[in-house]
């Protein structure tokens, strides 16, 4: 089974609700996507609404993954909003629905994001990762490298501060699985 990917979907009211529902389910299963469980739709909308506005109005772009007609994965290409960084994007809100995790869909989502980034001619993709969840391993497998940390930058709970790990995928280097011309 493979996912069907859609870049730049039309953000109808129905789709917005489905995105919020996905985001709630991922968070409440322990996902590190901007909140700490438990959350409900109203709380997620406080971030989802401006996030989706910045997609509808630009400059950010949305990549969705569907299993049939069911929305099960998403990632956002976030523009750095700085004219000296137009060659980069930050991938944010990378998530797969909890009952679909562990089947290779997260990896497929990230590979699709990489394909899109290469098609757009970007030089690098960047992700920030909450330390202590093993998530950096997921990104390392996909070729991302740790390039720094914001120490104790994420307060998961009082007395539980986590580093924010900065990870980087260089798109200017030849991919290891691609043949070279030499
Ligand atoms: C992170 C996430 C997108 C991965 O999606 P997924 O569909 O479960 O991942 P895959 O099945 O493609 O896994 C690919 C590999 O990465 C590993 N992996 C996946 N999630 C991992 C995690 N949280 N920690 C460590 N390794 C992980 C898998 O074990 C797998 O390796 P394997 O083939 O050796 O078993 C998904 O778990 C998720 O949505 N998590 C909650 C949201 C979140 O925290 N997002 C990250 C924001 S920085």
**Series of secondary-structure elements, N-terminal to C-terminal:** EHHEEEHEHEE
C-alpha geometry: globular
Kindly give the count of domains. 1
Mean of pLDDT? 95
Oligomer: single chain
CATH homologous superfamily identity: Gcn5-related N-acetyltransferase (GNAT)
User: Helix segment count?
Assistant: 4
Strand content: 25-35%
Return Rg in Å.
16 Å
Name of the CATH architecture = 3-Layer(aba) Sandwich
In the CATH hierarchy, the third-tier topology is known as: Aminopeptidase
Largest sheet, spatial ordering of strands:
1-2-3-4-5-7-6
Share of helix among residues? 25-40%
**What's the total number of strands?**
7
Class from secondary-structure proportions: alpha+beta
Instruction: Just give the CATH class.
Output: Alpha Beta
Give a verbal description of the structure.
The structure is a single chain. The protein has 182 residues and is an alpha+beta fold. It has a single domain, classed as Gcn5-related N-acetyltransferase (GNAT) (Aminopeptidase, 3-Layer(aba) Sandwich). The chain is 30% helix and 33% strand. The protein contains four helices and seven strands, in the order βααβββαβαββ. The protein has a seven-stranded mixed beta sheet, with helices on both faces. β6 and β7 form a beta hairpin. α1 (13-28) crosses α2 (41-56). The longest helix is centred in the first third of the chain and has 16 residues, at 13-28. The chain is globular and about 40 Å long. It starts with a strand and ends in a 12-residue tail after the last strand. The model has no long low-confidence stretch (mean pLDDT 95). The chain binds coenzyme A (COA).
